[in-house]
Amino acid sequence: MERDGDGRIRVMAVADSDSYLKWSAALLGALPGEGWDTDLAVVRSPVAPSADQVRAAVAGTPLEGREVPVRGALELRNRLLRERPDVLMLNCTGPVVDALAHALVGEWRPVLVSGLPGISVPATERAWLYRSTVDLFVLHSHREVAEFTELGARLGATGGIGLATLPFLPEPRPRAGGGRPRVVFASQAKVPAEQGQREQVLLGLAALAEARPDLEVVVKLRAREDEAQTHKERYHYEALWRYMAARGEVRPDAVAFRTGPMVEYLEDAAGFVTVSSTAALEAFALDVPTLVLTDFGLNAEQINLVFEGSGVLGTLDDVRAARFRRVDRGWLRANYFHPVHENDWVRRLTTLVAAARRGELPRRGSLLTGPEQQRRRTRSLMRLSLPPTAVRQLGRARRRLRALRANLRGTLASRS
Fold it and tell me: Is a pLDDT exceeding 70 seen at residue 403?
């Protein structure tokens, strides 16, 4: 990636977790091939993807078969200062974007890009604040662009927003037919949050499997129990299923638990179920009848507000009865299925690269300031630089120190 005056635009993307890695690979693949050079790396972190997750993330993209190295923050900085790509994509969770934007960029000033890899409605202040130093914030629907534009203006953000098609949406294709039809439930780490709610979901899927033996019921996992994810999954579905089977609540083999690319499970699916997963959009793209569950609420906490008006909202009673629904076409137009010619992120990126090469790219100050924020950045950089074992040891040491301080305060208070 050395500069050679050929006018090519060099792009380096950095991801920190499975979902951001998958998005990065697909987004890089959506760039024009001619005149662009792309590279991808994972920054070392507690949520870094496993080797299997890396292979699945780049499958079907131009990066398939290429090495995706895992590097500490300092290693990344040295590489970037040596190679100096035109564009640095910080495709990471918010705190990591904020920390890397301050650590990786010094006298060298690339175009900074970031974004969100899935459904991002409603717009949140945290998402903007952590990305307030970037030049281009990539989003995937007219609704998202409108909400984040209004919020950014209110917060004082100066970076631009670019519209892209959500890059891993599959192209519509004829159904292969044949074989046992399946119903796919897409799990998500954050929602529903409670163990009892997740057990309700599994009981609903088990009831469907018993009532419809002609259907294969599959829980599509984002990660196995021992694999990291972008968000911590407190109650893993496969572990819960084992406990429920041991208690005699479900038949052990009634439901299958699988990993791998979602599209492989949707191609012949008879139905799709989720609480709020972005995989619902993949189901819509393949015209798979869908249910988005509202048993636990239709709100920001369940990350499913975006599906209001989609025509696919339902309950676990609908799952048990296999009542799946087709998505409303009007909803698709405003949410993630706009015509490709309306995308403007590549045009905006090209304009920013030209400005950077002329030395006209402005510095964008972070909206997150103060000593406490600086301490958080320092902690984030330590987590991104140290080996995972050292991070765990440091965390244990900090917890012990907090406990000692609490005990000391209690002792002093009892003596006063």
Answer: no
